[in-house]
Amino acid sequence: xxxxxxxxxxxxxxxxxxxxxxxxxxxxxxxxxxxxxxxxxxxxxxxxxxxxxxxxxxxxxxxxxxxxxxxxxxxxxxxxxxxxxxxxxxxxxxxxxxxxxxxxxxxxxxxxxxxxxxxxxxxxxxxxxxxxxxxxxxxxxxxxxxxxxxxxxxxxxxxxxxxxxxxxxxxxxxxxxxxxxxxxxxxxxxxxxxxxxxxxxxxxxxxxxxxxxxxxxxxxxxxxxxxxxxxxxxxxxxxxxxxxxxxxxxxxxxxxxxxxxxxxxxxxxxxxxxxxxxxxxxxxxxxxxxxxxxxxxxxxxxxxxxxxxxxxxxxxxxxxxxxxxxxxxxxxxxxxxxxxxxxxxxxxxxxxxxxxxx
Length: 358
Fold this sequence. Notes:
Elements: H1 2-10, H2 20-27, H3 33-40, H4 44-52, H5 55-63, E1 70-75, H6 96-110, E2 121-127, E3 157-158, E4 169-175, E5 179-189, E6 203-213, E7 229-234, E8 238-239, E9 247-258, E10 261-269, E11 271-272, E12 279-280, E13 282-292, E14 296-302, E15 306-311, H7 321-330, H8 336-357
Parallel strand pairs: 1-15
Antiparallel strand pairs: 2-4, 3-13, 4-10, 5-9, 5-13, 6-7, 6-8, 6-10, 11-12, 14-15
Helix pairs in contact: 5-6, 7-8
């Protein structure tokens, strides 16, 4: 690889004929992981331009503008072979190589696939109001069915009754990680099977908020306040249908939730209760489709909301074979031994097929 780089440089590097600003500007047009990884592998000067231009961070910002909230970034090497933090072998390395590694791996995790069969909600935090606590508290919305296993006990959250049809309600949840990519939110209104006519107490509209806590969170699931949070993202307002089914509210784009707080805002009321002629909103189940960033966490550093991105530095062994080669190409790792292992495995496989055909 060293000889290859020297050969490329000796034949003339186009980037060397340009001033640094122009070369950096041209590389900013690289907008895929494959392009950036390929540019990093051309020669030393190109790799230097990729690092100094922070192209991996730029790629994160293009698809996930929430990355702008990271004012700092540090790396915590959790390798067993290294000394503990604070010793002379501290793993915090504030340099361009570290930034490249952090944002390259961040982008890889940001582009993961959603967890299909598991909600990203860890726990219920608070509801703006509750009619009968705890039987109708927000905790009931974590149960996936409108009834428990005995098929008699209902599972739902209910707001207090209101005469104003425009009175809003909110349900606030903690996600499974401080950093989660949210793809869509699924909500099922509650059908009161025990009331005459089996009315469905849905809301008229729904809006999703993502953000973080600004002061100590309250432990009571029904005493939260919007003043406890800073919202870094608000979705468009979605229409909710008055039907007994799981309704999907897909965000316009995948959104990085920095802080791990998600709030469902229920706007407008459509159903009165026959007993008191008040408007209620009742929700059977809420789930969040997305994925957590397992190798990263966020730490609040100041106001306005700025965070320190902490990379836990899980250095995993490179996989071999076709999948391993593709994975390492995306990550910018094109070591000759990986290609050699891949080539040998292909030759052995071809010879095995040939021998079996005799």
